[in-house]
Amino acid sequence: MASVGSCPALGLTSAIKWLRASALGLVGLCVCPAAALATDIDAVADGQDATATDEAPLRSGLRWHIDGSWRLGGDHLTPIDVNSPDPAKLTPNDTGEHRLRLGGDVEYAQTHGFVRGLAAQIQADFRQSNNTVDTPDGFTMRKAYAEATTLAGRFSAGRTVSQWGLGLVAQNGEDDPMQFGMKHGGGIVDRVQYAILPAAIFQSGDPMDAFPLAIAVAYDRVRQDDLARTDSDVAHHWLAALLYRGKDLQAGLYGVKRDQVDAAGLGMNAWIGDAYAAYSSYTKTGWKLGIASEFAVISGTTTWLRTISQPDHLDIAQWGGVIRGEAAHNGLKFRLEGGIASGDDRPFDSTLHNFQFASDYHVGLVLFSQYMRQQSRQTMANLGDPRFTNGAPAGVEHVDTHGAVTQAMYLHPVVRLEATKRLALMVGAVFARSPVEVADPFQTYMAGGVPAGPRGAKHQQDLGTEFDTAVEWNQPIAVGLSLLARVDAGVLLPGHAYDAADGSAASAVAGVQGQLALRGNW
Predict the structure, then answer these.
(1) DSSP state of 53
(2) Where exactly are the structural domains of the chain?
(3) Which residue in 108, 197, 222, 298 has the most C-beta neighbors within 10 A?
(4) Would you give the DSSP letter of residue 221?
(5) Model confidence over 21-46: pLDDT tens digits?
(6) Is 441 helix (H, G, I), strand (E, B) or coil?
(7) Which of the pair, 311 or 197, is modelled with greater confidence?
(8) Does domain 12-521 have CATH number 3.40.50.300?
(9) Across-strand partners of 334?
(10) Structure pTM?
(11) Whole-angstrom Cα distance, residue 187 to residue 171?
């Protein structure tokens, strides 16, 4: 069933980093506001120093930055056991794409006057692929954003991508070196935002020494995310958020009101609440240790996928979260992550319980991104097959998980070794089961309401075990220019939830993904 599991959040890390003390002790400038959007809790959890630029001196003047990349990628998947396959409606087992991304930002800062800084960002993608279900081909404007830093706060407007916390529900699509696989691009919104650090008003010195809490409000017109994938999907967000960002501790809360309607007049009215926190510190032996967590709840109503007993609307009651611990020292990084996404073992009652992470939040390479995605595509085909039903229910396209973590609880250890400045090796595993008995909507209907998995197994929760590895090579070419070559590979041993009705186990599935990227940063 559908999940309301993706919504943009506010760039509050940027809001705190630019609110440094100025000569008047009120407001300052961010040294690098464009990068700040992606350097909050992720930087801490990845063993980076999220506050490294906070101590850089503030200077008046103009700064500019240009970046770009060209990426060629492809993946191969061995055959997946599905029930009543319809190859025309499933994602190909062999996919490939190339993507050109170009962008940059410019920033002007001064230490006097009401306006202390002006900045603008722009970034665009051009993409071609034989799999356009997740991300459309052609030209996509990802960023066209302007902002003004004043003594009254920061005002910003334009098109941008979103990131909040660990990226559980708001994901900007940027690569995470500790995650497997390639990302599709994240959520894109047209946003109007206002943010302020109240301590900047009352603190005569550096407001970060008083109380580093930022407040922000925003309005979004969603252009692309996991639930709004076409121009006929009209979605809006009203957002409010708080972010505390100390040197070692970061914590935040935000709420989102989402309204969405599609071409058929169907949609949702939902509230999303999200909280995250992260703490990191160095030991005396030079290890950097960190712990981070994010938790989200969603409530509301939707007119998608209404049931026979509930022909008007369905209620939404979903929740999910992750907790992540990391240790890093001299190129060696460990990550242990546990997560849960609420499940729904009663697909025909009045409430949708199955939470869904943002699809660009990767856990492993095969189980969620490929295997469960294919099974959900098969369920879509079955629900719309006239041999079994009287026609596809409205909103059936939302059964597709798009590779997101959903209806699962998992443990995901990862080890990354940067053996040299150019070579990195990574290994990981995923151990997963459903928090409730797996209930494929079609198979459960055919079983008279008894929870049944995608191939007919009844009363099962075991999703499977996966083992992954990756090899990455970074080759400098010229000043600011480098070449990345990477290969990810994984094997999944499906759990009993994917057994057939007669008890026979599903076949193991292997996946290989390769990418070649030319990257520039000036």
Answers:
(1) G
(2) 12-521
(3) 197
(4) E
(5) 222 222 222 222 222 222 222 222 22
(6) helix
(7) 197
(8) no
(9) 327, 415
(10) 0.85
(11) 6
